[in-house]
Write a structure and sequence with these properties.
Arc Repressor Mutant, subunit A, 147 residues, mainly alpha, 65% helix, 7% strand, 2 domains, 3 strands, 3-stranded antiparallel β-sheet
Amino acid sequence: MGLGIRQLAAGASFGGFAAKVRAYMRQILAPNLFRAEAICFRTRQSGHATWIAGYILGGMLDRVTARDIVRDYRARRATEHRDELTSVMNSLVTVGWVDPEQSRNPARLPTARRVNPAVHVSFAAQAQAERRRRDEIRAAVAKQAGQ
């Protein structure tokens, strides 16, 4: 029972139609696009982006800096990996997870990014699973250290 061209041209409401399009894009198109991209274009950066996304979700962060990431993610700690970290963060900007903050010096690349609040809403279940996983790792490390 969709709207035809004649009904739309006659001034039918776009509100319900737009809601259906939005739902279709979010529930069908986007997940399948991300799944296809993950299969076709998996790179080293994909793993880093996944770790950073888990870091954002697990910490319920509203802001993330390059310093935070390199302090907690040993794989990106070396200075020769900074360009790759910038590239990974730019990919998170592209998919709408973060927005770069202007640095005080406009000649420098941004090192801090604001997290899109919708990420925490859309990925609430994954965030909870990530926090649980990180808590289990902390407990295992503490247990190992206590032995």
